[in-house]
């Protein structure tokens, strides 16, 4: 062991000594430090960093799928295996915490560079708005995983996630209240709305409708249905397009094309073993909820050879096996419908829901519009359609958290592995995942309550 260390040191000394001439060229090194508006464009065009690797812990924990005992036991990643049964154990893997904060860091770096850029530059507003959008989106993703559900009565006393507003690494991280975390997310998205263009030609970058939709999603999580309705409506005023599922190759492996007309902002999840296509077997009750005339049944799912009678998900909006956690117009129609129903705008709730469902329905069959007038029954219908439309889209975990606050919609989750049954009751503290122990040790931030 000592010999290996000595060899490594010797190699390092050789490399450093051979680099003397290079290190002397300090002026050249300065040239690679981002400082121009062109540099900010390049930073925000990093799709692989800004649009991917969002945390999948929540999706691992939802009830839209199940694993067989053999598959569960074969998962080599211990933490992912334990997350499936909601085991309340310390985590050491930091990737699902670290990657969104890398997005926050780059956003802050861009905003720092913009302080020295002429605001009259035609690119300034678009970049300024984009950086605020990415920071807010990443913080919201983290909040949905690592913080409890938002309630007006307790949010001021619950912990949010660390909010970094500068690229400096020396600033000590703290956990603000959930109220303050959401205030920053809302502020960033509103800045994005004010600065982003209506049309964005670069694939993967946000535009004004993206920010409206993101803010509608945030207010829905907060239970502020008036604001959720307003921002969902504003989003759909700009981008109302829906896929006509009749135009899709429904039997294809990936029927939804990447960057299709519904995509307002693409974001992809970290790949995990439990959520692998043929590992995650679609919940049988959920699958049976789709009518045979509902084209989503063929677009989203395909039968497994084994176990017989089971299905796997193939409907990612990334046109791949990678799960899509981004924002689409289909989601925003559902946000508008639910928010409208909750504030008594029943005609608007019906209209938004039926507009979506009609685009998914077999045109050779009779489509019967939803016309339910009872508020409770209408909400149940909307929430059922929300689950069916947004399956494997990273929304179910946050939906379970917020809906568990209402006794009408509470759900106890259950897993069965062999003869062992595991449960996750409504409003359990485990709905806020543990922060990785490595992060706790290095930063000193407070762990979630248990």
Explain this structure.
The protein is mostly helical and 450 residues long. It has a single domain, classed as Serine Threonine Protein Phosphatase 5, Tetratricopeptide repeat (Alpha Horseshoe), CATH 1.25.40. The protein is built from 20 helices and eight strands. α4 packs antiparallel against α9, α12 runs antiparallel to α13 and α12 packs across α16. The N terminus is likely disordered. Belongs to the SusD family. It comes from Sphingobacterium tabacisoli.
Q: Can you tag this structure with a few keywords?
A:
450 residues; mainly alpha; Serine Threonine Protein Phosphatase 5, Tetratricopeptide repeat; two-stranded antiparallel sheet; 20 helices; globular; TPR-like_helical_dom_sf; SusD-like_N; membrane; SusD_RagB_dom
Tell me the CATH architecture: Alpha Horseshoe
Main β-sheet description:
2 strands, antiparallel
Number of strands: 8
Overall tally of structural domains: 1
Task: Give me the number of helical elements.
Answer: 20
Structural class from helices and strands?
Answer: mainly alpha
The ordered H/E elements are HHHHHHEHHHHHHHEEHHEEEHHHHEEH
Percent range for helical residues?
40-55%
Unreliable residue stretches: 1-31
Average per-residue pLDDT, rounded, comes to: 93
Task: Characterize the overall form.
Answer: globular
| Radius of gyration using CA atoms only | 23 Å
Protein name: RagB/SusD family nutrient uptake outer membrane protein
Pfam family, one: SusD_RagB
Main location: membrane
InterPro entries: SusD-like_N, SusD_RagB_dom, TPR-like_helical_dom_sf, TPR_rpt
């Amino acid at each position: 062991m000592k010999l290996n260390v000595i060899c490594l040191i010797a190699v390092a000394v050789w490399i450093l000594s051979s680099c003397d001439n290079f290190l002397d060229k300090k002026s050249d090194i300065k040239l690679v430090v981002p400082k121009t508006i062109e540099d900010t464009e390049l930073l925000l065009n990093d799709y692989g960093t800004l649009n991917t690797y969002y945390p999948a812990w929540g999706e691992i924990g939802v009830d839209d799928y199940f694993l067989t005992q053999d598959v569960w036991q074969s998962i080599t990643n211990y933490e992912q295996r334990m997350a499936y049964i909601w085991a309340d154990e310390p985590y050491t893997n930091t990737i699902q915490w670290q990657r969104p904060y890398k997005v926050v860091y780059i956003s802050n770096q861009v905003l720092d560079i913009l302080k020295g850029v002429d605001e009259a530059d035609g690119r300034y507003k678009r970049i300024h708005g984009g950086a605020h959008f990415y920071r807010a989106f990443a913080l919201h993703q983290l909040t949905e995983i690592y913080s409890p559900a938002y309630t007006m009565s307790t949010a001021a006393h619950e912990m949010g996630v660390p909010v970094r507003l500068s690229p400096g690494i020396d600033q000590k991280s703290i956990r603000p209240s959930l109220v303050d975390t959401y205030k920053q997310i809302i502020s960033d998205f509103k800045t994005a709305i004010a600065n982003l263009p209506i049309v964005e030609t670069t694939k993967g970058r946000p535009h004004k409708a993206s920010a409206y939709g993101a803010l509608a999603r945030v207010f829905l999580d907060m239970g502020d249905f008036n604001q959720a309705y307003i921002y969902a409506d504003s989003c759909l005023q700009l981008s109302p397009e829906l896929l006509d599922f009749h135009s899709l190759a429904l039997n294809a492996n990936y029927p939804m094309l990447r960057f299709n007309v519904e995509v307002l902002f693409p974001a992809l999840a970290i790949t995990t073993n439990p959520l692998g296509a043929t590992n995650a077997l679609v919940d049988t009750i959920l699958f049976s909820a789709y009518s045979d005339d509902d084209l989503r049944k063929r677009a989203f799912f395909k039968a497994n050879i084994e176990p017989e009678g089971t299905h796997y998900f193939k409907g990612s909006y990334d046109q791949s096996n990678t799960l899509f956690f981004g924002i689409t117009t289909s989601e925003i129609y559902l946000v508008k419908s639910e928010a409208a129903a909750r504030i008594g705008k029943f005609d608007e709730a019906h209209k938004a829901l039926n507009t979506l469902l009609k685009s998914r329905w077999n045109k050779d069959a009779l489509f019967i519009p939803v016309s339910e007038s009872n508020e409770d029954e209408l909400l149940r219908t909307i929430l059922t359609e929300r689950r069916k439309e947004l399956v494997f889209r990273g929304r179910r975990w946050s939906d379970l958290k917020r809906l568990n606050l209402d006794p009408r919609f509470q759900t106890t989750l259950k897993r069965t592995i062999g003869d062992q049954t595991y449960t996750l009751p409504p409003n359990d503290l485990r709905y806020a995942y543990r922060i990785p122990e490595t992060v706790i040790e290095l930063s000193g931030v407070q762990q979630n309550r248990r």
